Amino acid sequence: MKKAIWILWPSFVVAGVADVVFFTVFDPADFMIFGPFGLSRLTAYSTGFFLLWALGAASSAFTCFLQRRADEINKREEPDAAR
């Protein structure tokens, strides 16, 4: 549970800041990448936030993955004495 908090909380904060900065510069009503989406502004803001949160969570998860110690990576299971 602690690692989930380490991953999700910082990515939530970063997604909030990135969402504010991104949508301050770009108006979601003007997005016409593959034609008009027809989405409301609230839908565009919400979708953008969750996409940025997923990107931040992936980055935080990768950081947690890279912070493992060598003994955690090189764990060997002890052979059973009964075998």
Low-confidence stretches: none
What multimeric state do the chains show?
Answer: single chain
Q: Using the alpha-carbon principal axes, give the shape.
A: elongated
Q: Find the structural class using helix and strand composition.
A: mainly alpha
From the N-terminal CA to the C-terminal CA, the straight-line distance is 36 Å
Q: Which percent range describes the beta-strand content?
A: under 5%
Mean pLDDT score: 81
Question: So how many helices?
Answer: 3
Element pattern in H and E:
HHH
Radius of gyration: 20 Å
Question: What is the count of β-strands?
Answer: 0
Major sheet: size, sense and barrel closure?
none
Structure description:
This protein is mainly alpha-helical and 83 residues long. The protein has a domain at 2-27 and 38-67. The chain has helices at residues 2-25, 41-66, 70-73. Helix 1 crosses helix 2. The protein is elongated. The model has no long low-confidence stretch (mean pLDDT 81).
